[in-house]
Amino acid sequence: MAFAQETDESIATPDVLIVGTGLAGLGMAVKLAEAGHRDFVILEKAGEVGGTWRENTYPGCACDVASVMYSYSFAPNRNWSRMYAEQPEILDYIKHVVKERDLEPHIRFHTEVTSYEFDEAADRWHVRTRSGQEYRPRIVVLAHGALHQPNVPDLPGMDRFKGELFHSAQWDHSVDLRGKRVAVIGTGSSAVQFIPRIAGVAAHVDVFQRNAHWVLPKADRPLKHLERRLFASLPFVQRLYRLAAYWTHELPVLAFLNPKYLGVLELAAKRTLEKQVPDPELRAKLTPTYRIGCKRILLTNDYFPALQRPDVSLTTSGIEEFTESGIRTKDGELHEADVVILATGFSTDNRCASEHIVGRGGLTIQEAWRDGMTAHLGTTVAGFPNLFMLMGPNSGGGAQSILFVIEAQVHYIVECLKLMRSRRATRLEVRAEVQQRFNDWLHAKLSGSVWNSGGCHSWFLDHRGVNRQSWPGTGTSYWRATRRPDPQAFLLTQGGADRSR
Ligand SMILES: Cc1cc2nc3c(=O)[nH]c(=O)nc-3n(C[C@H](O)[C@H](O)[C@H](O)COP(=O)(O)OP(=O)(O)OC[C@H]3O[C@@H](n4cnc5c(N)ncnc54)[C@H](O)[C@@H]3O)c2cc1C
């Protein structure tokens, strides 16, 4: 691709361009501003901030890490109403941060990025949007979400179905479920949150389960008036709650990495099942066949009780096909439905599969990732200079709040920008051999983890069975790894001249 040399007034040339106004992109913006960067824009394809928390509006949508941990450490929310906040409150929190940190002037809404090409002569990216605008930033930060593209399964006869059909991440609020026969496909994190809310509203809810999930009780409750007053007046009290929540999320990871210690968690989950589900037949259907932690553990108090209502049934015989009026299972039974809700998660296999990202020497992200997604510390990819990712490959998983990981990455990126400035480098690119060594280490460490060897196929694994999501350690170890970028890990150049030393 040849690039025009003359400066076009209509082309914006921000120093840093961030894509996405979810928690990752906004966190990046706050920390850039704090580090003294003023010249940045944030492009957002939607008309509002919030990402995940703007899009997922299904009944009961809530976080499954404690609210005190599901907020930025630099912007604690003193007003959480519950131990685990629901979607409207999280979205309000995000909007509050945008207002408080005066980020809105930096955001360009309804601006969907369609391509990124690196201009090697100028050491700048050419970024194009769907509406034809062009940006030429020095740095690009991709914060376009890891759980953003709803996964819509290709089930036989789906287009034949005459009723309403939507994905839980695109909840159709115009569909009134009252008195309807509702089929729910999937029993993961979203399903267990909304099934108890629609049970009793719909005439009947048919839940189609492919695999049973491990369930643990959710320590959710409204925060007491006194607790909220203490949070507001004595910040260290909230910091103590946060510390407790941090370690509650951190400790299970040690067992996920050493599955021989999973017994205690499995015992607790089995007790929960025994206590909440007295019927041995239903209990058998709800008993997982893999080790706990292999898939994300579901935290809920009202899912098992909902399944035992007379107007809710659990079907495990597998879906054969859709008909015009419902779903036929492999045992030949037809389950009539007016509405089908897909609770089938998100496409995570190769989140840049359809992105036009062209790096150094014409390398496309598809070529770079032909054997699967890889990056260095989940943030930089060899062949793609001056481009950073948030929530990139192998930086999540675990049980820790994603916000903790995002903050570590944001810090790392700001440090990389400082490194570039101190070396007067116009280009920073992770060395291919460093990325390779890092990935060899990472996958060796993951091989013994429950995510890889626990006997399930979760969304952490790609279609080849390689784990492309999990960090092979605790949140603390990721935090440590991202404190200071190692200058030796990068090619740092200015106009081709080596600035690495
Ligand atoms: C229902 C649900 C519950 C969750 N609960 C938890 C939880 O309890 N704890 C936890 O740790 N994690 C949870 N997660 C994971 C969650 O995705 C992250 O915690 C976090 O919200 C992700 O933020 P993000 O900014 O990386 O991505 P997103 O929130 O997905 O934001 C990405 C943004 O980028 C925009 N965008 C995408 N492509 C483009 C483009 N080409 N051009 C312009 N803009 C673009 C999108 O419109 C979106 O606004 C949950 C996820 C879901 C779906």
Automatic annotation (TrEMBL):
A Pfam family reported for this protein in Swiss-Prot or TrEMBL: Pyr_redox_3
Domain of life where this protein originates: Bacteria
InterPro entries xref list: FAD-bind_Monooxygenase_sf (IPR051209), FAD/NAD-bd_sf (IPR036188)
Record PANTHER family: FAD_NAD(P)-BINDING DOMAIN-CONTAINING PROTEIN-RELATED (PTHR42877:SF4), L-ORNITHINE N(5)-MONOOXYGENASE-RELATED (PTHR42877)
Protein name: NAD(P)/FAD-dependent oxidoreductase
Organism phylogeny: Bacteria, Bacillati, Actinomycetota, Actinomycetes, Kitasatosporales
